[in-house]
Every structure is written in C-alpha cells, then in structure tokens.
Request: fold
Amino acid sequence: MFKKKKQNNDEPVMENYWDVFVRNYRDSEGFRVLVKLGGYFIFVGILVILAIGVKDVNRERDDSSDQTEEVVTVNYPELLDNIMDREDDFSIHVHVDDQDYEIRATFIDNVMEGYLETSGGTVKFRIADGQVYEVNLHDEIVNPNLFSNMNLSLVVPSSLIELLKNTSYQEDNGTFIYNLFIDGISYEVKVNITEDAVDGIEILSDNASYIYEY
Reply:
C-alpha cells in the first residue's frame, strides 16, 4: 500500500496579495494612513470628473437654447427687405401655359438686369421705373412685350416683396405661406428661409409657376 506523504511544517507558506494587504493594514499605522489617503484622492477625483461632465452637459444645453432663441427671434419682414439689398445673382424658372422661361438676373438699386432665355433664344433686358428694356449691342429699346406672357409683378423682386408685405401669411417650419389674388388669378406663395436668409421663393397657380433660386 502507498504511504501518505507527511507534510513538512518547515516549508514557507506563500501569501497572496490580499493577505499581504490585510496584514500590513492591521499591523502598520503608516500603511493604514496611506490607504485612507489613496481612497480619499480617488473619491475626490470621481467627484471632479462628475462635476466636469455636468458642466459640459449644461454648456451644451445653453448653446442649444441660444441657437433656438436665435431662430425664434429672426425678423422675417427684414429678411424680405434684405432681398432688395442683395447684389448676388438669382434665377427664376417660369412655366406659363406650357411655355418655359429662364431668367438670370441681378437686382441692384431698384434696377433688374439680366437675361431672358426662351425657346426662341436669349435676350438681354433691363427693368427700371416700371419700364422693360431690351438691351442690344449699342443701345436699348422699350419692349413691353418681352414679358407679356408673365405677370411682371411676380418677376421684379421689389414688386413681389411689396405684395407679400401687404398680405397675411402662415408660418410652417421655416416656410412662410401666402395666398395672393392678382388679376383674377389665385397664387400660392412659399418663401423658404435658411440660415437667416431667404434662399428660395415658390409661386404656383393652376397654369403657371415662378420658382426663385438664390
């Protein structure tokens, strides 16, 4: 039969880290002080991290609130007036009675200048003081028939803005909606606002459309 090996009591007993920690904490006052200081600094560090996180969240909420207030306080009538002060080019896509027209122009100092493109070609024009001029190489002539198939009050920005300013509207998520009645024709007008500026106007009737793009 096999004999059970006798345990040697003289062999050293291996301690794990936890045993060492407990023994040092029990026997050494300096170690206990060090452990307590470490716990204190860890606790303070957690509080600081939480405080910074709460502060960042509050700052984001404040920034979001500021942006919301900016959108709410936009002065829409001023945005309409600003259209007449903009010197950048704009275009109007016109569709009337199955005919398509493309207008590319500027509006500066109450004068509209640009090009009218039709199926018959492209004509340079100028509109000032209610008169329509066809511009040739060396001169310009009055040509009231140049826009005869369109409603000129919907083509000239100053005339359109004057109509809108005297008409009530409804606002729907950044789009201002009007109902105009001109010369027996009903038009729905939608003014789109993006980044505190008018970036497009859509005018629709049963047989015509005027689409402004800035």
Observations:
- Helices lie at 17-27, 29-72, 76-83, 157-165.
- The radius of gyration is 39 Å.
- Residues 29-72 form the longest helix (44 residues).
